[in-house]
Amino acid sequence: MSKHQKKLQKRNHKKGRTGLKRILNATKYSQDGFISAWKEEEGFRQVSVLFVLSLGLGLWLGEGFCQKILLVFSGTLCVLVELFNTAIENAIDHTSLKPHPFAKKAKDMGSAAQLLSLLFFALVWGAFVYERFVS
Predict the structure, then answer these.
(1) Shortest CA distance to 41 belongs to which of 119, 121, 123, 110?
(2) I need a labelling partner for 78 at 20 to 30 A (CA). Which of 88, 97, 110, 115 fits?
(3) Angle of the 101-129 helix axis to the 42-61 helix axis, nearest 10
(4) Nearest to residue 82, comparing CAs of 108, 43, 56, 109?
(5) For residues 99 and 42, what is the distance between their CA atoms, to the nearest angstrom?
(6) Are 79 and 37 in contact (CB under 8 A)?
């Protein structure tokens, strides 16, 4: 084991895991993250419902692989961005609950990223509905 690997193990004993054990640990951490986000974050529950709707409707209404993937991806992106946004907010709140300009900026940027993902969702689905049902 290299010096770097030993340092990582001292810092976080789970970081040094390799192979199947690392994959199992990562899977458990991911599961914990989904459960925590679902229980504690209204925004995550909202975009999760949006994702489930876009998954079902996208696979049903989409014509061809590319169209289906784009419709489903737009909802998936909203969930991904919400998880990152929530992670940023939690990390900042863990550090300090006192107002700070950098903390506000980081939280606002996370919120802006979520807004962009939701606008992308609206654009994709709006164009699809218009093309398929209106024009």
Answers:
(1) 110
(2) 97
(3) 20
(4) 43
(5) 22
(6) no
What does the DSSP 8-state code read for residue 63? -
Q: Say which of 40, 63, 82, 89 is annotated catalytic.
A: 82
**What is the Cα–Cα distance from 86 to 79, expressed in whole angstroms?**
10
Record the pTM.
Answer: 0.85
CA distance 130 to 117: 20
Q: In this structure, are residues 41 and 82 in contact, taking their beta carbons and an 8 Å threshold?
A: yes
Distance between CA atoms of residues 111 and 44, nearest Å: 13
Q: Which of 23, 43, 26 is nearest to 90 (CA)?
A: 43
pLDDT digits (tens, 9 = 90+) for 47-101: 999 999 999 999 999 999 999 999 999 999 999 999 999 999 999 999 998 999 9
| Joined tokens for residue 57 | 């409707």
- Determine the Cα angle at 101 with ends 96 and 104, to 5°: 70
End-to-end CA distance of the chain: 64
| Active site annotation includes 40 | no
